[in-house]
Amino acid sequence: MAQEIKLRKAEIEDRDIIWNILQQAIERRRKDGSTQWQEGYPNLGTVESDIAKGFGYVMTVNGEISVYVALILNDEPAYSTIEGAWLSNGEFVVVHRVAVDEKFAGQGMVKILFDHIEEFTRSHGIQSIKVDTNYDNIPMLKILENKGYSYCGEVVLAGGVRKAFEKIIF
């Protein structure tokens, strides 16, 4: 049977599920030996803020939340200072806080998520997608490479240096 996969805005009722998924991801990063997400960020307040501001999105598989992501339009102060250069200066979608539920790990959910983010960006007439990740987040680095994102340089975010990427949609 075909799976029905959708991207939708997160609602406050999703908060506890999202927080559980983020806690799983934080623990996965720790087990991988990463410093990313190990200093109390993201936290439940981050989730509540994302939802309140309309940034929080969930990807569902047959109605069950599988992935959480924050999509922010044109606003990431850390991106104004890049050691390197962005590909564009137009409108952009920022991708933050990608986390996959353990039940869906290893099923290519983040690749599918990025397809949905590209469709979201295209449907809103936005020029590009910008994203950053930790140097040691090998799975995300591979996905960005496979999805055609260009390495643009480094940004400082949440006290750490991150690799920054962009993909032009229009």
Automatic annotation (TrEMBL):
<dbReference type="Pfam" id="PF00583">
    <property type="entry name" value="Acetyltransf_1"/>
</dbReference>
<feature type="domain" description="N-acetyltransferase">
    <location>
        <begin position="5"/>
        <end position="170"/>
    </location>
</feature>
<dbReference type="InterPro" id="IPR000182">
    <property type="entry name" value="GNAT_dom"/>
</dbReference>
<protein>
    <submittedName>
        <fullName>GNAT family N-acetyltransferase</fullName>
    </submittedName>
</protein>
<dbReference type="InterPro" id="IPR016181">
    <property type="entry name" value="Acyl_CoA_acyltransferase"/>
</dbReference>
